[in-house]
Specification:
Layout (H helix, E strand, L loop, with lengths): L3 E5 L5 H16 L2 E8 L8 H24 L5 E7 L2 H8 L5 E5 L13 H9 L4 E4 L10 E4 L4 H17 L3 E7 L13 H18 L3 H4 L5 E7 L2 H9 L4 E5 L4 H4 L5 H8 L5 E4 L1
Parallel strand pairs: 1-2, 1-4, 2-3, 4-5, 6-7, 6-9, 7-8, 9-10
Antiparallel strand pairs: 5-10
Helix pairs in contact: 3-4, 8-10
């Protein structure tokens, strides 16, 4: 794996937000950028080749102009223009990258139906962390949020989130969301001692998950948050005021590699903030 950040660039306005996030991250961590644009939609029509070649030339000129602008900020940037399926090409391009950054046209809950099928497919297929940037202005927000459930991938998500919070000079909120057991014919009424014990167990698990952060980041402010509820709903609610949210993906094996897991997918479909998915 290289120390390179791959950024998927399109003509959509949100690409500017995604690129700016990636440039700042690269500058802070002394990483290089690779800007990639993919020209798709070929169907084999007569005269199509000339249209595609023109689109590729235009895309290359756009990327080269961006690379020059970025290099003035002290970040090395290369460009690549390809043709084909954008999802597949971005997945292939990120195979040895440190991070992939892509944009999403989602503008929040008032902007229409759920979106992000391409983002979910890309995030599901790559092996490196993926940052998905919605078309939302996060200036004025503060803090980094990470979801924790005690799994190995959750530990990696916490490590990623802690490094980002430290880089950004932000407080890290580590959140665990638990739900009571659902059984057939359950009226939804639970004994108080059961609910207290579930809360206590979640708090203990969360404490273990963050125990090593103080040693690695002595100056990092960490907030531990434990709440009963549905995970994606709670995490998105908290993320509405955060600069960055981080989640782990539970895909396993050759087939499961393309499955994010319901929570990650639900969060990506209704992005509340810039969101990183870590495997």
């Amino acid at each position: 794996m290289t120390n390179r950040i791959v950024v998927g660039i399109t003509e959509a306005p949100v690409s500017r937000r995604a690129l700016e996030w990636a440039v700042q991250r690269a500058a802070d961590r002394r990483q290089d950028l690779e800007l990639i644009s993919v020209v798709g939609g070929a169907v084999g029509a007569v005269g199509e080749r000339a249209v595609i070649e023109q689109a590729m030339d235009t895309s290359r000129q756009m990327l080269e102009a961006e690379a020059l602008r970025i290099e003035k900020r002290g970040v090395v940037a290369t460009v690549r223009v390809e043709r084909g399926n954008p999802v597949k090409r971005l997945i292939d391009a990120s195979s040895d990258a440190a991070l992939l950054v892509i944009g999403s046209d989602y503008r929040g809950p008032d902007s229409g139906p759920e979106r992000g099928a391409h983002g979910v497919r890309i995030a599901s297929g790559v092996r490196c962390p993926v940052v998905v940037v919605p078309d939302v202005d996060v200036s004025g927000r503060s803090g980094v949020l990470v979801g924790a459930d005690g799994s190995d991938v959750s530990e990696r998500a916490i490590a990623f989130a802690a490094a980002e919070a430290d880089r950004m000079g932000e407080t890290l909120t580590v959140a665990t969301v638990w739900s009571p057991i659902v059984t057939p014919h359950n009226p939804g009424v639970y004994p108080d001692d059961y609910l207290r014990n579930m809360q206590a167990l979640a708090e203990e698990a969360l404490a273990l998950s963050v125990a090593g952060l103080r040693q690695d980041y002595p100056d990092l402010a960490v907030i531990k948050h434990v709440e009963e509820g549905y995970p994606s709903a709670v995490l998105n609610r908290i993320a509405e005021s955060a600069r960055l949210a981080v989640l782990g993906s539970h895909g396993r094996g050759a087939v499961a590699r393309f499955l994010l897991g319901s929570i990650s997918e639900e969060v990506l479909s209704r992005l509340a903030t810039i969101t990183a998915i870590v495997r």
